[in-house]
Amino acid sequence: MSLEIDLRCNGKHGFRLDLHCSIADQGVTAVYGASGSGKSTLLDCIAGLREPEQGSRILFRGTRWSSTGHSLPAWQRRIGYVFQDARLFPHLTVAGNLDFAARRAAAEPPLPRERLIDMLGLATLLKQRPGSLSAGQKQRAAIGRALCSAPQLLLLDEPLANLDHAASAQCLELLQQLAQQLDLPMLYVSHDMEEVSQLADNLLLLDNGHLQEQGSIIDLSSRLDTRLAHEEQAAAIVLGEISAQDDAFGLTEISAEGQTLYVSQLPLAIGSRRRLRIPARDVSICRERPLHSSILNILPVTIAEIEESQRARLLLRLALGQQHLLARITYKSAQRLGLQVGDQVFAQIKSVALLSEAGDAS
């Protein structure tokens, strides 16, 4: 089963969303693209808040939500929607907002109310109204309200966009926990790839109302033929497993494809799976392993692909076992080193490039 979309919808100033795709009904799928690419329009059509053109079709797990001559009302679709600006009912307390959703739920919510309140840190806020809350508190309450409605699909439209760094990190951690603990598919809209890479399993790349690419975020992040690779924040995502804790130096060792990566110590058990984001700009290439370097993370890799480019900078795709890194180096460096596909080289990774909850190793 999945979310089947064959959608056409006109917007303002000549914009047109024209999209045909199938989205998995499990895990977190990120909808990524620049402002004006159609991300919010897509979510509004799925939620039943915007009427698509005749001939469009939206099916969820075999149920028709929208098709020619038929549109299931928004309230019957059992969708939880978290907006960028929270949109809590201002005349109700936090508890009142949760109760409003719970009274209209068509099934049991995915978490018991008390557990949800505890997880979202809402216990001390229940008697307050939205006007007295911080932006982060409002968004946590909005997430709670959406879940109290017992949704079968959760839509999140840039929920961290209006939050400061601390509140954004807190909300992102909560969403990670919810994604891991609940059997609830989520569509997560964002234009921040670093944020997306910490949460999403799959990715839809939108551009000017059209689907550019779709697939696993790990696969798409390390390809040279996507728009992601040519953004300034281009980065590969590598999966690893915590193999040791180095208490003497305050480091955690993460094993990936038989190689060891070091990050600042993480409060996680041995054997825990870990996702690492390694920006292309923070990877350099050596023909021989450096003997005297302050950089801890130096990995043997094979050049799998070299971008065809005569520009000042180019991209390399580097095979690390079955996974891949990206490296952005100067064209002059590539020529000076005589790099070719198939060469075995060493990738030096600046430790700040490794994504970790507790900071990065030096």
Structure, described:
The structure is a single chain. By secondary structure, the protein is α+β, with helices and mostly antiparallel strands. It contains 8 helices and 20 strands. The chain has helices at 39-47, 94-103, 113-119, 135-148, 165-181, 193-197, 217-221, 331-337, and strands at residues 2-10, 16-24, 28-32, 57-60, 63-67, 70-71, 79-82, 153-157, 186-190, 202-207, 210-216, 235-246, 251-256, 259-264, 273-279, 283-286, 297-306, 313-320, 323-330, 344-349. The strands form 4 sheets. A 6-stranded mixed β-sheet has the order 7-8-9-3-10-11, with helices on both faces. The protein has a 5-stranded antiparallel β-sheet with strand order 2-1-4-5-6, with helices on one face. A 5-stranded antiparallel β-sheet has the order 16-20-17-18-19. Strand 1 and strand 2 (16-24) form a beta hairpin. Helix 4 packs parallel to helix 5. The protein is globular, with a radius of gyration of 23 Å. 37% of the residues are buried.
Topology of this structure?
Layout lengths: L1 E9 L5 E9 L3 E5 L6 H9 L9 E4 L2 E5 L2 E2 L7 E4 L11 H10 L9 H7 L15 H14 L4 E5 L7 H17 L4 E5 L2 H5 L4 E6 L2 E7 H5 L13 E12 L4 E6 L2 E6 L8 E7 L3 E4 L10 E10 L6 E8 L2 E8 H7 L6 E6 L13
Parallel strand pairs: 3-9, 3-10, 7-8, 8-9
Antiparallel strand pairs: 1-2, 1-4, 4-5, 5-6, 10-11, 12-13, 12-15, 13-14, 16-20, 17-18, 17-20, 18-19
Helix pairs in contact: 2-4, 4-5
